Amino acid sequence: MRENLNTLRKSTSNDRSAKCKIASIFDKRISKRFIIEFTNKLSILLNSKIQLAAAMEILHKQTNNTQAKRMIKSVKKDVEKGNSFSNALRKFPTEFDDLYIALVKVGEVSGNLYNVLSSHAAYLLHQHQQKKKLYSASIYPSLLVMVSIASIIIFFTVLLPVISEMLSEFDAELPSGTKLLVSIGKMNFKTIALAIVPAIALIIYMFYKFKDNNFISKLVLKFPIIGLIYRKVQFARFFRTSGILLQSGMSISDSFSTSIKIIQNDILRKSLNQALVKIRKGQCISGALKSTNLFEPMSYEMIDAGERTSQLSQILVFIAEHYEKEVDNYMETLLNLVEPLIIIFVGLLLGFVVVSLYIPMFDIVNIIAY
Asked: Which residues are within 8 A (CB) of 186 and not within 5 positions of it... i.e. 6 or more apart?
């Protein structure tokens, strides 16, 4: 118990020294990182045999974020009034999703809230690190694209009009590539931008509004490479959530039902719901999932072994980790391919621009020389 409390104190002191007072002034929103730390610290306090309300009071004192303080105070008051912890968290759906609340509810019923929170904190941290890794890896390609676009816009709006005017004064014969550039330069970029930006915004709006539509769901799944990565992300979420819920004491039927709800694709949800109906009718889990034809053959064999050895929850978490590793590998490969492709494309584009302009410039030099 002392070791757990010392660990918490060290973690808290480090957080305070790193986050200084400025963060408490400007960080009004409750971040995902804070929820992970909150979950992890609460699990440590509960494992130290501290009552839930007292643990919430400790966390309230150690928190600098104003919004987080309000949230913790509200949850603490509800718990002291006799409400369940899961119901108290329902008031904050932005911070605590359905999965979080379902896990807490299972932990409360089974008396195993510490283990549930500890496992879920590790899961949330893994997700957060994945997103952070993807964001970091995409910075260089994104900057490269933005700089290239900015360079091209400056060229067409500033340099090209001057060069095209000079070429017209000498009445030189322009190559087809140069004529194309001059024609593009004469376009009204403001009008084009005013047409393109609303169109892109409309497409994004329609995609999010109808993302559960069958057509959108099928389109996402069939998209080359991205569709494959998207599938594996959804499968990893399904298996990991099911495994955590089973470890927490929830029944197979209820854990699968909860896990299916967090799948973000209508086609996948329907297939898994069909498998769930078969499981509720008494069919074995591996056979029901195999009928969906969604997963790798290895997954069905492992689930079958998990059913026979009563280690299904561990097997489901292991399968989730397998899919997560595959996603990491695919993302790393994809980003490694994107960078050189962008460089090649930008190089070819700039090369075409330079050649198209330098050929008539040489002709002008020859005209002046003679």
From this structure: none
Structure tokens at 3: 């070791």
Nearest to 168 by CA among 154, 158, 182: 182
pLDDT score for 295: 92
φ, ψ for residue 204, nearest 5 deg: -65, -40
**End-to-end alpha-carbon separation of the chain, Å?**
94
Q: What is the pLDDT of residues 243-255, one digit of tens each?
A: 888 887 788 998 8
Residue 6, H or E segment: helix 2-26
Residue type, 238: F
Please report, as a single letter, which amino acid is at residue 312. L
Which long-range contacts does 99-104 make (Cβ < 8 Å, 24+ apart)?
99/241, 99/258, 99/261, 99/262, 102/245, 102/250, 102/258, 103/244, 103/245, 103/248
Distance separating alpha carbons of residues 128 and 122, to the nearest angstrom: 10
Q: Which two tokens stand for residue 337?
A: 């391919």
Report residue 322's pLDDT band, with 50, 70 and 90 as the boundaries: very high
Residues contacting residue 246 through CB under 8 Å, at least 6 positions apart: 252, 255, 312, 313, 316
- Confidence at 363, pLDDT banded by 50, 70, 90: low
Gap between the Cα atoms of 239 and 233, Å rounded: 10
